[in-house]
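Appendix B. One record, verbatim.
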Amino acid sequence: MVSTTLQLLKNELPVDEGSLLLNGDVKTGLVLVDVVNGFCTVGAGNLAPRQPDEQISSMVDESVKLAKAFSEKQWPIFAFLDSHHPDIPEPPFPPHCIIGTPESELVPALQWLENEPNATLRRKDCIDGFLGSIEKDGSNVFVDWVKNNDIKALLVVGICTDVCVLDFVCSALSARNRRILTPLEDVIVYSRGCATSDLPVHVARTIKDALAHPQELMHHIGLYMAKDRGAKIVSDVSFCVPKEQ
């Protein structure tokens, strides 16, 4: 049933995906959205996968590959870490990614970013990382990162495709359109570097007030909405070193 519905959805709401070749000509920054234990590591918390999840595991692998490639080239990296105070809820979600617990830390394969000179880590206590980057004085850590690094393109990966990734992408696009993120031109979402959670309808019906969240369907919808708002969607990312003159 889900596969039939998914195919119907893809037919009616197609997402044409391109390829991205990074050669250093366009200053590109990598944005990792919430690749933390609380969303990615089996059994790590209320919103973590209950069992091994191929889509999430693949997302983590692709995120790690890109982070390592950007690090080797000394290109800028920005990582959002979902982190919440235990006394401040985030409805409609149950408690998750509480500050000071392993849930709010990067997955083991990315913890080296904490000591990476080209990486900026930002803990956020809300769905949208753009809003979560606002300081008490009104400044914005993410905006400053884009401007200070003269970034013209963002490559976005992470979880969840249709929640935190989508909200951040939409805000970044709106900020770009209002010239808040100058010189930013493009926001690019790497589909294989994104994933979302899975809550089938038959399971959701056993949980009070829960909404079904079929993984493949919602992943596709997240990508479609991001593209509809102006993001570029790619299914392949490769690197090419410019030839010396």
